Amino acid sequence: MAPLGLYIHVPFCSRICNYCNFNRRLLDDPLKARFVAAVRSHIECVAAGLSHTAPRAADTIYFGGGTPSLLSPAEIASIINSCQQAFSVAADAEVTMEVNPETASPEALSGFRAAGVNRLSIGVQSFRDDELMRLGRVHDQARARRAVAEARAAGFDNVSIDLIMWLPGQSLADWRQSIEGLVSVAPDHASLYMLELYPHAPLREEMARSGVSQAPDDDAADMYELAMDMVGAAGLAQYEISNAARSGFESAHNLKYWMDGEWFGFGPGAHSTVGGVRWKAVSATEQFVSAIEAGSDVQTDRRVLSREDRWQEALITGLRLVEGVAVDDLLRNYGLDIWARYGDHLAPYLEAGLLRHEEGRLRLSRQGMLLANEVLAVFI
Ligand code: SF4
Question: Consecutive sets of 10 residues in the chain, 380 residues long: mean pLDDT of each?
Fold first, then answer.
């Protein structure tokens, strides 16, 4: 069995950004203390329920949110400790924490490093103050730059930066400025997302009020190409639709999602996929914490994945990777033949150059990545 990933969802934020559709809530200190205890119990309970004689091996821990950096170093250390007690966590495990720039300080970052965190993912989102204000972010670009410098000073040699493109009012030149900002602080990894506006996002109202809109689709495509070209030239090679890294700094945790791996999720709303079964924990933080305190089950939406479900998921997630999927491996693992099932549907995409089939691997071209939703819909 390949080592597991362990995901811990920290739902607290100091302010709610106007485009955010994650499972998050405003910080509440008394609830935070109960949350930390509940997550630790959740980890222990799940591990105790496994029918293995020895603890299962894990080689990644990922604190996502929300804003995990609102937890104290001692709280993060206690959760890592619970993971180590419950699972056989590799000594060189990748331990990532998402950090918002405004929560960073030299003391806090040194504390997180001492607690065992060895990779930071900093939510910069933009290196332009006007865009950060429009998104309702707390930090400005100067604070973001300081956070990266403080991370390096605290001993982090694996730092990732998140940016969002296709923001309302953002031109190609504005976006270039953000990428230049990213390149100037020399991260080891970059996650470059397109803004997805969910139906009732407050940012939509703000856009309607101020008469600002997103650039046309063609400009969004240019932004994407520009971003991947610029970070590539700076030594960060694209390895997934939205991610690029220096060689050896790809996110080991996220690769589990894209490479048919297994992971446990702890905390409100966290998903798990282990042994062909998928479930999530109840999403509302209060409900999650109260249920754990009462000794009740927090598992919901449990689904046994069929062989066909797993095969389709392995295809869809694997095609997000630049290297794509090994067609023969999928046939061997799941006994299903992609050409027999989808050959007719895939032919037009292969002919148009959106998909490539080379040396036994099926993969999206750069152009195909821009239209990934359309191409991957073939498998759904
Ligand atoms: S900090 Fe992140 S999780 Fe929190 S509200 Fe903003 S976008 Fe959402």
Answer: 96 96 96 98 90 86 97 98 97 98 97 98 98 95 98 98 97 98 98 94 93 94 97 98 98 97 98 96 98 96 95 95 95 92 94 96 95 89
Contact 126, 171 (CB under 8 A): no
How many angstroms is it from 100 CA to the middle of ligand 1? Answer: 9
The residue nearest atom 6 of ligand 1, judged by CA position, is 17
Dist. CA 281–CA 86, nearest whole Å: 18
DSSP 306-332: PHHHHHHHHHHHHTTBTT-EEHHHHHH
Distance CA 133, CA 311 (A): 43
- Ligand 1 pocket test: pick from 14, 22, 198 the residue with the most ligand atoms within 8 Å of its Cβ: 22
Can you tell me the distance from the alpha carbon of 188 to that of 311, in angstroms, rounded to the nearest whole number? 32
What are φ and ψ of residue 136, in 5° steps?
75, 25
Distance (Å, whole) CA 336 – CA 310:
11
- Tracing tokens 């332009």 back to the chain, one arrives at 128
Rg of the Cα trace of the chain? 21
C-alpha 13 – ligand 1 centre gap (Å): 6
Which of the 8 DSSP states describes residue 352? T
How buried is 284 (Cβ within 10 angstroms: 0-12 exposed, 13-18 middle, 19+ buried)? Answer: middle
CA nearest ligand 1 atom 7, residue: 20
Report how far Cα 42 is from the mean position of its chain's Cα atoms: 21
In angstroms, the Cα distances linking 292 to 33, 80, 297 are: 13, 19, 7
**CA nearest ligand 1 atom 3, residue:** 66
Question: Probe ligand 1: pick from 14, 25, 67, 133, max atoms within 8 Å of CB?
Answer: 67
- How far apart are the C-alpha atoms of 193 and 333, rounded to whole Å? 31
Mutation to probe ligand 1, out of 12, 18, 24, 167 (largest number of atoms < 8 A from CB): 24
Cα(17) to centroid of ligand 1, in Å?
5
